[in-house]
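Sample pair:
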Amino acid sequence: MATQWMITNRKQHGSELGPHEGPLTFWMTDKAGDAAKLKNLKEWQQLKPAEFVGGLRRKVAAQFPELPDEENEHEHHVTLFVHGFNNSFEDALGRYLQIHSAILRKPKLGICVLFTWPSDGSKAGYFPDRQDARSSADELAHVLQILFDYLAERQEAAMRSGLKTCKAKTSIIAHSMGNYLVQKAMQTVWTRKNQPMLLSLISQLVMVAADVDNDLFGAGETVDKGDGDAIANLTYRVTALYTGLDPALGLSAGFKHFGKRRLGRSGLDTHVPAPDNVWAADCTEIFRKAKATNIHSAYFDVLRTQDLIVSVLALMILATEHVFG
């Protein structure tokens, strides 16, 4: 059975994926190995979109346990990981493999799919990366629309038959500027597919070190058709993990001096309301006690924040503002 799944809009450069935008492609592999090995596309099989979705459904989701309705919170997840700024293809693969093995496999939560976009992989490339993220949002929106159409089809089939037709939840883990990409993609999907709200597309959205405005959800329960409104309506629950120790988001705030504070550095703006399915967790004390380094990515490296992500996906914690000491 295939163990690794990937969707990308990176342009193929030889036997690898490069830093420039190309057509949307879908890949799978059952080969074991690290990022240095798996960056060679000869280790992967390219699929058509229908083959990719069908493979996930038949080879992965179909193997998940079928649970009664009252235990739906324990269903396994198909989790999409969207990486952030300054990630080469090999960097993105390395983080994806870490999440797949160190986080999702702990409680057997399910499987992970990598969405890798053409981040320039250069510390000097903040503005080009932001432009790439905005451009890539259309490709991610296309992926989410495929998922939305499939979920709507399964929901209709369940209503007709009275039988449960889907055994998996769909979630997203987005890191850094990947959250900006998700923000814009979900606005596109909501505009095209889901006004008014018909179903929840995403079970859990985990916004890790999010490089987006911290008043993104400032409309609260009011329907203003903004980006935050789109995310809150398409998602069962949104969790933002943040810390004021993050120097990378301090750099981002410096570049974007005319805007709001970064959600991943300051948490939710307390001067504006937030929807009741959006909350934030301050991970500062976790990192201090762990003497963590490379704070911007430490959420994936430190055991307690790994466990926090697991708890969020598994619906094991309350949806309230909380500070973790």
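The mean pLDDT is 81.
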